[in-house]
Design a protein that fits this description.
about 180 residues; mainly beta; 4-stranded antiparallel β-sheet; 17 strands; about 0% helix; elongated
Amino acid sequence: INATEMATTNMPFLGASYYVVSANNETITLLDSADTTILGEGETVTVDGRSISIEFIDTDEVKLNVDGEVTDSMDEGETDELDDGSYLSVIDLTVQDYAEGVKKVEFSIGDGQIILNDGDEVIVGEDSDDDIDELYVYIGDSGSDLIDSITLQWKSDDETFLGEGDVIMMPGLGVLGLEY
């Protein structure tokens, strides 16, 4: 898959569908349960029960108002975590910079963000402090932003014990488990 073509698409991953915010052959940023919407200046939309409007927009940045909470200034491809733990990502800004020009933003809002950095622990959240201990990701590439595999490696520590009838769930993502 060409990583540069993955952004703004849905990707099946571990039995679920995730929205791809951005991708290259080293890092893939995903949102789960993402809804994508185009919003014009002066409009208000309701997405997943949230009232969203444009607070400020110009040619290279936008601030959105989500139920009274104003996001940080964001450019295309940037993401902001909201107070409720959801994430809002700007996909595209369309601004005609003259008096009657069109000003629109395409954005995606989702419940959680997952960052897959090649060779590092999986991050669920906004920064490396939110990494999942023992769960590593490896992005196989064949050059020129072509991704040929995504591998997760779950390295359980010595304190993990699996007895008869027990189930151990994959840390953080919880979509895969081992049962004895």
